[in-house]
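Q: What residues go here?
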């Protein structure tokens, strides 16, 4: 494709935590390897976050909200991309494209209630293209779903490219949702195991907002002061999702606000700190169970590399290590990459693959019938 020799791509990622949009300015060398040049997180304004949560709700969403929010998110994402350019000093002319994951507001990985498998990410790419003057790659998940995939997880393709090594390694991302990529030593693409493990920070963050008026439990301080309630943990781990074999994906539809409201109503006598401790252990235990049930039967996990916002929570990390006493637990920084930049960098890689006309999904991870080129390309308007 014309202009494919441009070395830079801006990856944008706004996940289920809704804390902001991550922007990663990535440079690709002649060998195609990515190097993170600049990274920032543009915090999401409170009223915008409220609109996204309303749009995700079957009770509070409507078509006008969805329409207007699509444009507003596009402008918000464009602002992050422009700031990455400004702060890095990289000329716009050297940037191949902006790769925008968009904001997922609803995801139906398998047919349900008469609706076909489908996914919806908002953040109008035409607005991003106009505001930045750059081509935009967006809607990465839709093509995978068109070939009978679940549209997620997509990051495993990048995990395979960057982190395959000579020992058995699993890469656990903890954003709003948790997802793992398991790489057997020297594995082939069709041997990659990847799937969503369950909640990441989503349940913890929702409880922190509702019980403490805080956006999240910083450093797991509140959870560390509580005691996990085993009966609640076992109730949650009994959800059908955890017994489903991969490929599988989940999100706010299962572990969002309604999940927390129902739990608080069902168990009214639990202290706020105990709720945070239980939610943190829920994330750690769901990771352990996912590995034991769906990875270890294929090969033993020697090393777990944790990334995403959850990797900065020492209470959660300690719980994960306790759940996996025979596994070496590390963070993304130990491999020379920023944990918080991982997903934005990954979508920069996927955006470049799309611009070069190369497939970006792993059928072994998503369940797709074959590899396909992901995303829609919106040309630069000028």
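A:
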């Amino acid at each position: 494709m014309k202009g494919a020799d441009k070395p830079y791509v801006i990856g944008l990622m706004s996940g289920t935590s809704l804390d902001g949009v991550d922007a990663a300015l990535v440079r690709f060398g002649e060998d195609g390897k990515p190097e993170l040049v600049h990274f920032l997180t543009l915090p999401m304004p409170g009223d915008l976050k409220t609109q996204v949560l309303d749009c995700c709700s079957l009770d509070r969403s409507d078509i006008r909200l969805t329409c207007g929010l699509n444009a507003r998110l596009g402008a918000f994402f464009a602002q992050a991309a422009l700031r990455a350019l400004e702060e890095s000093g990289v000329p716009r002319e050297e940037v191949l494209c902006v790769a925008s994951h968009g904001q997922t507001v609803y995801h139906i990985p398998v047919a349900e209630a008469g609706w076909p498998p489908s996914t919806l990410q908002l953040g109008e790419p035409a607005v991003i293209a106009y505001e930045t003057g750059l081509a935009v790659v967006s809607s990465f998940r839709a093509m995978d779903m068109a070939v009978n995939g679940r549209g997620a997880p997509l990051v495993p393709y990048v995990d395979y490219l960057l982190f395959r090594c000579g020992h058995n390694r699993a890469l656990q991302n903890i954003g709003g949702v948790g997802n793992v990529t398991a790489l057997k030593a020297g594995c082939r693409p069709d041997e990659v195991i990847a799937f969503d493990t369950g909640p990441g920070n989503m349940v913890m963050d929702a409880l922190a907002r509702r019980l403490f008026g805080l956006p999240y439990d910083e450093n797991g301080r509140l959870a560390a002061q509580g005691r996990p309630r085993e009966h609640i943990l076992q109730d949650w781990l009994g959800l059908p999702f955890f017994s489903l074999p991969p490929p599988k994906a989940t999100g706010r539809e299962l572990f969002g606000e309604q999940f927390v409201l129902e739990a608080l109503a069902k168990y009214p006598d639990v202290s706020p700190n105990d709720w945070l401790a239980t939610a943190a252990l829920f994330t750690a235990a769901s990771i352990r169970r996912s590995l034991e049930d769906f990875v270890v039967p294929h090969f033993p996990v020697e090393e777990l590399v944790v990334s995403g916002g959850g990797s900065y929570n020492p209470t959660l990390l300690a719980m994960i290590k306790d759940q996996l006493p025979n596994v070496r637990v590390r963070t993304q920084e130990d491999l020379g990459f920023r944990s918080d930049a991982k997903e934005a960098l990954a979508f920069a890689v996927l955006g470049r693959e799309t611009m070069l006309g190369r497939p970006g999904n792993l059928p072994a991870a998503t369940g797709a019938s074959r590899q396909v080129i992901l995303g829609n390309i919106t040309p630069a308007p000028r």
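A: Context that may help when evaluating the design: The longest strand covers residues 95-108. The two ends are 17 Å apart (CA to CA).
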